[in-house]
Amino acid sequence: MIDHLSIGVRDLERSARFYETTLAPLGLSRLVTRPATVGFGKSYPEFWINLRAEMAQVAPDSGVHICLRAKSAGEVDAFHAAALKAGGRSDGAPGLRPHDRVRYYAAFIVDPDGNRIEAVTFPGE
């Protein structure tokens, strides 16, 4: 249903380095680099960062977050560790999250601009 998504960042090169490291465990790499945007994906750009130099830090209570699918719990763990190493912060350590409808394994991070990103997999699928 969704073809691609994009987020705003205040420093394009800093964020490109952050996302190169953070998205690599999920199999996404930098595919497109333009003066004000960078696209990451597997075969085409699915995740874009766009320069918004005057953008304020994303408010923690904005309610917006993006979830990316991982193939395994190991990828979720690696995503979380890579994000922390690259300068992000944890918004929820990797772990199993059982709910009424579905059981899933996820980790949540916050990038240097305050964007909230999750990686998720569904064990037993």
CATH class: Alpha Beta
Q: Would you tell me which CATH topology applies? A: 2,3-Dihydroxybiphenyl 1,2-Dioxygenase, domain 1
Write out the strand line-up for the largest beta sheet, numbering strands in chain order: 1-4-3-2
Low-confidence stretches: none
Q: Measured on Cα atoms, how large is the radius of gyration?
A: 14 Å
Proportion in helices: 10-25%
Mean pLDDT: 95
> How many helices does DSSP assign?
2
Q: What form results from the Cα inertia axes?
A: globular
Strand count, sense and closure of the main sheet? 4 strands, mixed
Total beta strands: 8
Query: What is the beta-strand fraction?
Result: 35-45%
Give the CA-CA distance, first to last residue.
20 Å
The CATH architecture is Roll
User: Structural class of the secondary structure composition?
Assistant: alpha/beta
Please tell me the total number of domains.
1
CATH superfamily: 2,3-Dihydroxybiphenyl 1,2-Dioxygenase, domain 1
Order of helices and strands: EHEEEEHEEE
